[in-house]
Design a protein that fits this description.
Largest sheet: none
Shape: flat
Helix content: 55-70%
Distance between the termini: 34 Å
Number of helices: 2
Radius of gyration: 19 Å
Length: 67
């Protein structure tokens, strides 16, 4: 399934931006609190993902408390 075409120019722009970001991180280290923020997001996402996967065949629920 294709979600849209990225042109060569767009691809290069994105790649350059990521390269620049990585270089900055290597030179300056990560910003304080970067990993705390990231970990919080990941934990939250993982929890939601597991909850949805455990109820694959059921109707999506509007509230986490209803079973």
């Amino acid at each position: 399934v294709s979600f849209g075409v990225i042109t060569q120019d767009q691809g290069n722009t994105i790649k350059n931006r990521i390269d620049t970001m990585v270089k900055n991180m290597e030179q300056n280290g990560l910003p304080q609190g970067f990993f705390k923020h990231f970990e919080g997001k990941r934990r939250d996402f993982k929890g939601k993902w597991q909850n949805e996967n455990n109820q694959q065949n059921s109707v999506p629920q509007s509230s986490n408390n209803s079973i």
